[in-house]
Amino acid sequence: MSSNLRINYTIDPDPAALALRAAHHMLELAEEAVEARGRCRIAISGGSTPKATFRILADPAQPFVSRMPWSQIELFFVDERTVPPDHPDSNYRMTKEALLDHVPIRPEQVHRMQGELEPEVAAAEYEFDLRRTFRLEGAESPRFDILTLGMGPDGHCASLFPHTEALHEIGRLVAANHVPQMNTWRITLTWPVINHAREVFFLIAGADKADRAKQVFTGPKDVETLPSQLIWPASGILTLLMDKAAAAELPPTGADGKGHLERAR
């Protein structure tokens, strides 16, 4: 993992513009991955901004349906709620309804976390799936080409919530994480796996994220309280795609709407 982190961020005027930028960003990265390696493995998060992005990717009036290399994509999940796949809270259901039902991607290209199983079983099954798909041995981690994250108002990302056990998990690829503050369990990729991805980017929208974004990306290190600070990609580069409200307390960008921060470990 790089000792220094460059955080590149772009700011769009509203969530709709942010979702469109995210769709273009995913297309560009997917095309690059396919050109370089013949396929693109993407790990996605749930949330309202990804949902809007998925709808744009699936919109026949947009260029993405025809340009995205769907046949060469494998889709994975960053985290999942402990619910069946048809439950309204399921990240899989959201993704299926917003994206998968409308694009030429086959069921075998989609790797679902089985939230209907006991949490520890679901985590173990997904780790087995990752090891088999990526042909991993020993302590190896999967290398996703693209990994998307959101950030909650409490500073969590994936299902790595403040003061939960999964923040300390470094030996497993997938963890069953009990979240006492929500009285629930979640299934989540662990932070070393997230950091091993080639391209990691956050989608952050809304005024309720502004203060937390400032704390996470410019404040002192406190990963127990601000788990998003655990995201420090091995590449040394982290990308933030934000709307104006979420970025209100970050340093202003240039005329091109882009800015950057430098963090030392």
TrEMBL record:
SUPFAM superfamilies: NagB/RpiA/CoA transferase-like. The keyword Hydrolase applies. It catalyses: 6-phospho-D-glucono-1,5-lactone + H2O = 6-phospho-D-gluconate + H(+). Its EC number is 3.1.1.31. GO terms for molecular function: 6-phosphogluconolactonase activity. Residues 13-236 form the Glucosamine/galactosamine-6-phosphate isomerase domain. Gene3D superfamilies: 3.40.50.1360. It is an enzyme of class 3 (hydrolase). Keywords: Hydrolase. Hydrolysis of 6-phosphogluconolactone to 6-phosphogluconate. This is 6-phosphogluconolactonase.
